[in-house]
Amino acid sequence: MTFKSYYENLENKGKKGKREQILIKTGCSYPTFYKWLAGKTNNISKLNKEAIAEILQLPVQELFPETVEHTL
Question: Could you please report the per-residue DSSP string of 10-22?
Fold first, then answer.
């Protein structure tokens, strides 16, 4: 379940609480948060993706499937 689909499936009360947690933990603004949801920017840092995944208790790869980890 991607970040957008997870957030859209929350009840209104749950959306506000999760949104506020994400805003506080990532330090992003409301406009940036909604750009992330709309997919208007892929400029989400690895740390912010990890913070969002921690708050939503889902793996980063599930929330952000476009994230590719490169290992050597």
Answer: S-HHHHHHHHHHH
